[in-house]
Amino acid sequence: MRPFPALCLCAALAATTALACSCSSDGTPPDSSPAGQGAGASPQGRSDAPPAAETPASGTEVSGAAPAGAAAAPETAGAASEPSGATSAGAAAAPETPAAVTGPAGAAPDIEWSRLYGGSGNDEIRAVAATPDGGLLAAGRSTSSDGDVEFNRGDLDAWLLKLDRQGNIEWRRSFGGSDWEWINSVAPTSDGGAVVAGDARSIDGDFDRARPNDGPTVWAARLDSRGETAWLRIFDNEGCLRSEDVSEAPDGGVVIAGMCDPVLTPCQSCRPGGAGENSIRALRLDADGYSVSRFCYTLPEGASALVASLAPDGGIVATYTVPIAGAVNETRITGVDAEGNLAFEIALSEDGKSLAALAPVAHGGGLIGAGSATVAGGRVPWLARIGNDGGIAWDTLAGEGAASGVRDRLRGAAQAEGGFFAAGSTEGHPHDPEDRGEDLLAVMADSDGGVVWTAVLGGSGRDGASAAAVAADGGPIAAGEARSADGDLALRAEGEGDPSSHTDGWIVKFRNP
Questions:
Q1: Per-residue pLDDT tens over the stretch 292-319
Q2: Residue from 400, 396, 375 nearest 385 by CA
Q3: What is the model's pTM?
Q4: How far from the centroid of its chain's Cα atoms is residue 285's Cα?
Q5: Which residues, 6 or more positions from 9, have their beta carbon under 8 angstroms from its beta carbon?
């Protein structure tokens, strides 16, 4: 990793015009009028939604046995790479030795439950969060208007489920218009409800407030413990902000972390008079969902594949790639504090590594990153432990028998008891000798990055996980989508018509060993 000079965002504003930040608005909501009025109000157009007590849909249980293809224990456990540490605050040094490819140290635990959720359309779970009562919040997008989905107003609608500890649906909600919208992130709130953040393009239905443009915009909603909508807000003035992470703030407000990619949408600059730029952005709301402050931090030219996550200290950590020479890209990790000032910036010296997920580490601080790396012409899972100062404590290639044609990708990560859990997808994995197609991949690592177990689940269709969490009882959870109707998803064929014609949301909960 190569150190970068420290920069200041908001503090530098008075002395230079190179960086800009807008903060501490007067709290008025001219840019964020509610779609639902008052506490407990449902989104506009929700008259067709059944009350929470009348929607006890439970999903389709597809498995309760140990995962097919669970790893057998090798003679020795794979070791994590040597920790590199940080050379100084805000700068990190490259590891002296590359990370070793490691294999699982034992068989995966039994599956406690495996369930499918959705209807006759295409349904996908993109985010999952554990709740204090032992249940789950699962969110994503759907084209269904039946089954476990309330309604569909056109194209993709945002979709939210509250599940109990056995995966049964306690309540369900949809938000939509005639165009597309979805939820990217969900988090529990202190009153037993939920807060969600996503992106929307509709200008009708639940998103009918007149907007200055018809491009994608960020939105957020807060729901109470019964799933009723307290407020729903739309934030056009954030330009091309795309929501990536959401959390309830200690004062009862909401914080949204996001990205701006001018390749995807027209983008407002962080700098006065500047053109659209890649940037890290944060939006802070009060308890009623009105914008109170925001900041924007410009990333290097050409930055792409950005993933932003809220840090435990209220700041934001983002990972992205930048071109450095010809076709060679470099993965960088940037941390910005709660005031918008640069906390650290590091670069991974090896090409071919990318992070797709970042998750806070409650015990010990810092974050865990999950993604993939190129090895022997294939892609293997990659885990990295990022310290409070931005240094890489360790990174591990959690693959086994990497070879050309193997394509593993981790897309979600969470802290687990004694280590870390990550989930994603795999093709050509050694634990899938039948080469059934894209399958769900789950990896458990210990606190030093050593692989504890690996599990591969799926069928002949396209299956995989987009999110990971750990339940209140310590059981790891992988969530995503499934198209198969055989293998570990054989029961999906019952009552589904032609199941291969659509996808369902899929959640797997492993037992806590």
A1: 888 888 888 788 877 888 887 778 888 8
A2: 396
A3: 0.78
A4: 20
A5: 19, 21, 295, 296, 297, 336, 339, 340, 341, 342
